[in-house]
Amino acid sequence: FFRTEIPEGLRPLPGPKPLPIIGNVLEVGSRPYLSLTAMSKRYGDVFQIQIGMRPVVVLSGSETVRQALIKQGDEFAGRPDLYSFQFINDGKSLAFSTDQAGVWRARRKLAYSALRSFATLEGTTPEYSCMLEEHVCKEGEYLITQLQKVMKADGSFDPFRHIVVSVANVICGMCFGRRYDHDHEELVSLVYLSNEFGQVVGSGNPADFIPILRFLPSSTMKKFLDINDRFNTFVQKIVTDHYSTFDKDNIRDITDSLIDHCEDRKLDENSNIQMSDEKVVGIVNDLFGAGFDTISTALSWSVMYLVAYPEMQERLYQEMVDNVGLDRTPVLTDKPKLPLLEAFILETMRHSSFLPFTIPHCTSKDTSLNGYFIPKDTCVFINQWQINHDPELWKDPSTFNPERFLSPDGTEVNKLEGEKMMVFGMGKRRCIGEVIARHELFLFLAILVQKLKFLPIPGEPLDMTPEYGLTMKHKPCHLRATMRSRDEQ
Ligand code: HEM
């Protein structure tokens, strides 16, 4: 390994001294969002660690991250060639692969427009303003019925187990034009195990950086490979079905619209074909994967916070009674009438910071940040958890307080406060599902708050310690729920 020459006027990156072979793995430990936040206090917003033999730059602080991802966006928009990423979507993932900038940009544009058109498509009846609203309202109702059924049979339920199927059904509806039963074995086993996916691709997994670890037996890695295989087989079966029933005059869902795009490209003599059909249609794997794991994790955390803060749960119910009532299902246009609910969602995302780091980035050329030199192809971690818990930005950051996001009279959400939070990334790689995610979270939660009261199991303390991964989950747990009755008003 040759030391790169540091250009004049720039400084070398600060950071902890690495040990031979393992680098700083021991200091990073099993909760990198805490250890790397602590290191940022000592070394500043831009510092370097070494995982194994590979240097990794860690960025913290809202201004520094904004400078890198927005002002110097192109230089920080790449993805590193990490070992685990090659198994995701057969190495053809939009979010994780090392696609060249041009190919990635074209795929991202396609993904974004397919997602947008199928979310905003008119609902099947005028009752719904768009397809997204229709899917969420219907799945929300199924979820309530399902939770009642499980409560009757078992007296308690694991929130994530049921929420994840409902959320997966919304994105399945848009991507594949179909939904699955809560007992559908193949789908349930696929979506319920998404934490095993997240544990491997979370920032700082030593096996991504230390080659020898790949040859040691690892049950986590085995499960990761298995879940990727099963995921690809599941989607491939649906895609094959779509090809055999494809009708250009009846584009049923996102899969059809991507197949249609490939067909059009073949007819267009001027088109600049740089992508295989597989890379185009494979976009649906990313949309499906990202579309259920993130939102179900957020929703499951929201239910945990409702149980942990029962007075807040009552205030949210009261806000629903006063501003929407109990005679109809809430809809998206109710959002401005439910500021406390929106503030509660923001605070759940900030406090849990369940996506503590963005997907790792990579520099596309030699660059500098805050006066420090960063060479081309350096892996970069962006610590969203640090930004969401920075005492410079937030009063009492460790306190769960949705009111921090409300105007002083409590009638509106303070948009500027909301924008300080970072959960969807920023700049060129910013999440393309953000609008859908915010709508979906709001509507699912509004439906749950209106219909159910969530409670702990007496004598069983709630454990809110997250399990580290790309998306951090709460531990599997059991809760109770009772139907709200009109007498409670
Ligand atoms: C990327 C957060 C929901 C699709 C990302 C990133 C984050 C994120 C942090 C990485 C940004 C970066 O690398 O800098 C979230 C959160 C969600 C959510 C917190 C829900 C609460 C969704 C949904 C979809 C989606 C619903 C699609 C249906 C994607 C895709 C990327 C991405 C395709 C990769 C973008 C790229 O690499 O260019 N998301 N996301 N996400 N998200 Fe989301």
Structure in words:
The protein is built from 17 helices and eight strands. By secondary structure, it is of the alpha+beta class. The strands form three sheets. It has a four-stranded mixed beta sheet, with helices on one face. The longest helix has 27 residues, at 219-245. The protein starts with 24 loop residues before the first helix and ends in a 6-residue tail after the last strand. The site of protoporphyrin IX containing FE has 25 residues, from helix 4, helix 12 and helix 17. Protoporphyrin IX containing FE is lined by residues 94-95, 108, 111, 115, 171, 286-287, 290-291, 294-295, 298, 355, 358-359, 423-425, 429, 431-433, 436-437.
| Bound molecule kinds, no repeats | protoporphyrin IX containing FE
Q: Low-confidence parts lasting 5 or more residues at pLDDT below 50?
A: none
Distance between the termini: 69 Å
Mean pLDDT: 92
* SSE order, one letter for each helix or strand: HHEEHHHHHHHHHHHHEEEEHHHEE
Query: What structural category arises from helix and sheet content?
Result: alpha+beta
**What is the tally of beta strands?**
8
Question: What characterizes the major β-sheet?
Answer: 4 strands, mixed
Strand content: 5-15%
* Percent helix range: 40-55%
Radius of gyration: 23 Å
Order of strands across the widest beta sheet?
1-2-6-3
**Shape annotation:** globular
Counted by DSSP, the helix tally is: 17
